[in-house]
Design brief:
- The complex is a heterotrimer of chains A (305), B (290) and C (412).
- With 305 residues, chain A is mainly α.
- Helix content of chain A is 70%, strand content 0%.
- Chain A is flat, with a radius of gyration of 24 Å.
- With 290 residues, chain B is mainly α.
- Chain B has a domain at 59-116 and 164-279: MetI-like (MetI-like fold, Orthogonal Bundle), CATH 1.10.3720.10.
- Chain C folds into 2 domains: 29-144 and 298-365, Periplasmic binding protein-like II (D-Maltodextrin-Binding Protein, domain 2, 3-Layer(aba) Sandwich); 146-297 and 369-411, Periplasmic binding protein-like II (D-Maltodextrin-Binding Protein, domain 2).
- Chain C has helices at residues 2-18, 40-56, 72-82, 97-102, 110-114, 124-129, 152-157, 167-177, 200-207, 225-237, 268-271, 311-321, 324-334, 344-348, 354-362, 373-388, 393-411; strands at residues 29-36, 60-67, 89-93, 131-132, 135-136, 138-151, 179-181, 184-191, 257-263, 280-283, 295-304, 364-365.
- In chain C, strand 7 (179-181) and strand 8 (184-191) form a beta hairpin.
- Classes of the chains: A mainly alpha (305), B mainly alpha (290), C alpha/beta (412).
Chain lengths: 305, 290, 412
Amino acid sequence: MSRIVRGHRHTAVSNVRRGETLSAWLMLLPFLIFFALFVIYPLVQNFIYSLTNYNFGPKHDFVGLKNYIQLFSDEWFLASLKNTVVYAFFSVIFLTGLGLVISVMLNKRSRMVKAARTVLILPYATSMVAVSMVWLFLLDPTTGYINKLLIELGVSTLPTWLNDPELALPSLIFINIWKNLGYCMIIYLSGLQNIPTELYEAAEVDGASTLRRHISITLPQIAPVTFFVLITNCIEAFKTFEQVQIMTQGGPMTSTTTVVLQIYRRAFEDFRMGYASAIAVVLFGIIFIMTVINLLLFKRRSEDK
Amino acid sequence: MKKSLHILGKVLSWLLIALIVAAILFPFAVMFFFSLKTMSEIRSPDPSLLPDVAAWENYKIALQTGSWGQYFFNSTFVTVIVVVISLIINSMSGYVFARLNFRFKNFLFVLILAGMMIPPQVTMIPVVSLIRSVPLAGGNDILGQGGSGLINTYSGLIIPFIAGSFGVFLCRQYFVSFPRELDDAALIDGCGRFRTFISIYLPLGKPVLASLAVLKFAGTWNEYTWPLVITQGDAMKTVQIALTNFRNESEIRWNLLMAATLMVSAVVCLVFIFAQKHFVNGILTGSIKG
Amino acid sequence: MKKRLIGIVLVAVMLLGLFCGCAKDDGTVTLTFLRLGNDEAEKNFWLEVIESYEAANPGIKIEYDDAAIGNAMDTKLTSLFSSNSGPDIIGHGILSIASRVEAGHYLPLDEYMQTWEQADDMIDMLQDFATYEGHTYGVAYMPTSYVFAYRTDLFAQAGIDAPPTTWEELLDYAERLTVVENGHTVQAGFAFPTAGGNLVEYDILSFCNGGRFADENGNPTINTPENLEALEFMSRLNEYSIPYNSNETNPFMTGNAAMTFIDNVKLSPMFSDPEYADKIALAMPPANGDNPAMTFSGCRLLFVGKDCKNVKEAFDFITYAVSEAIVMKRAQDTDAQAVLKSVSDEYATLKPFNDIRIKYVENGIGMPVTTWSTMFQTVRNEMVQAVQNGADPATALAQAQTKLEQEIANAK
């Protein structure tokens, strides 16, 4: 674990370090109080639930690993896991990559660029509930404007989008990318401000092309921020719920059911909070392992430089 | 050759931007046009994209459906407090994780990442229980029993948002790329850690603080589930809950829904436009790592 | 510097402390009421009912709240009950009974029902809905029937003079009423959803073929010849539909379909739109063979929550909310169906097609009142969608039965 967080390098001012631990805890205190109460406690509680058959009522018996064992033969859960991984993979790739490219392009001072940035933020400024409603409407096979546009373009076999098991998940992924590009842009832009212009100027003197300069300067300089974008998008993609609940309810068949949709259904529809908690613990485990892997990869890459 | 390649690259990049801008604007244009239609026009078999007659009064009608003044006040009040408190405690914690050394630091950091990974659907029940059993609030006794606690109060709405670790992670990732010489210089000058944070990291961290403010604002403003659970009745509703007023069981009133949605989203856009000068073309660029 | 830091911490804590709610206690009984659905007409109706009730019963105050259909209601209700701060009176669907009774969220109302004179006046089918394992838990206030609706103008254009009463007629009319332009269906003969939350339209076909989804012992009976026949019929009927999401607008509502099954209350806006008002009509759904015409009819009921400290007062408000005058007011204000036998005649003449709406309540079947009802919904939706995407109906049906049985075993 010590490799994960960059440790304090030896400095010439070690005499100040005596008070460091105290300062650290004091400065963390306000956050930690809230965090312990409203994040850690529910997390522990959730783990405890996962070992019981809690049904929001009198049932609260310890059932050991029964919930976890059932998961392996639960077709809904397995399908949701597959869908969620696909959803997260494509969302993260596009959001992290495209987001960076766009942010670099829009990191300029001009009226046009400012307008473009504001447009990009529109979907992020709109809630997922509203975005889902609008896209549901646009993608309607008969009255939706996407298909009306396709008719104008002379397409003969119209896709039925969310009603088609093959197209439903890709449609959801597209909408997620469409919505969250603005989020990535905000973070990338703030990261880009941290890169000293001298580095670019030096490279320009050396005659490096724009692309070359971005690869050799922007990418490594922005690595911690990229890591942040990657991790948060990944976590959010794994937790996707509202979009699916409003647009497809997991259908057609099981083609768009996601892990959190399963958690919701098991808990709030089937009243099997114990089982739902077990799914949440497994989801947590998966995201956790992926985050640690990413941490190590990024750590290694930044050490190579 | 090289020059034409450069121009080609420029053209391609602008094409990409234009394409994305168009893809984003199209749904919003549809929203806008629909916000100006009448319901009977929307109900007709084959409605055109543009409204027959622009019904601007839809915006007025939308705002008169329920007490939108109250909803906007609730959302703004809750969001502003969440943003202010989050900025303070998250940047402070982010700095600690980026720079200070103490026992359990790595463990704590991983815990903070882990805090983001549990879906709210399963943590909601324990959190509601906590909010309800805050001692001495809402008719509760000293043990937190007997009353309704912070349920249906602004505090109940605000507190769980502050606990999110997203901002800590963001600030840490940003501060970690500051050159260490900054600290060393400050420490040699006799500044304490807290002073270093206040006088060096906060001013230099303006871009990330502006980003965090926008992100936290958007996140809190757009939150649906928590206000839904914790508020009762019209007086405490937030704008996102109020938007469902236009989605009845009998029908979706698209014109009013679109009008209200655009107005609600516009607030976040305004915050972004106001904040973006702080995280774009940062005035300090270059001076940090000099 | 540490002082400043501690100062900030204190200010933050104090800021939060400032906004703590304060409770007041002045002797009045306050009842909280949470209702499923946020229709404006319905909300105004309830606010008026509460106002008149409070005027007649000083000392009782009712705090109204509602939650949109979909997941909002259950998320809210479950969270509140789990933290022992649930509402006193709850207006919710029949689907909620079994699970919430098992979890102890709803209180049994048997002793109160015995002293209530009007209890026998409730339409029988509706009172059955409120019973779970021998106890009564709720009082029906709003049937949510699916009706068979058709367009009289389109029927006339196609030379059809009466609604279909048999499946053969239904299929024949659907074909004749379908309009295809340039290879795209622009008008569906019969609109049937292919996506969405709850495809009860299939249930209506099954019911009209004598099919049921649970036996008297509460075991699932999905895989039966009647249900299979209905599923096969559905896939034939589907050719004359245009795909839509049941959570979105039914194409019938936008004039893009000639016939459909639709939730009664969803037709309200159409009946009040001059463009369509005189062009739509209701009829009983076409049945197959000798089977009687049945429909899917859900129901909303009023329950008393486990955290209620004034059950007597809560029940009194419930009886007020389903008293004759209020039931008629409701029918007038919101197009809702009447729930009392004594007002049936008056209700039938109140608005056009009310005579049929009453029949829908009397011949309505709801979701099975069991803990596996929601799982049944999911399994049924997947089965219908699988068939719509080309799966073999017999296989799909058999798989659905197996899957549901497996789920029920797992939940034990």
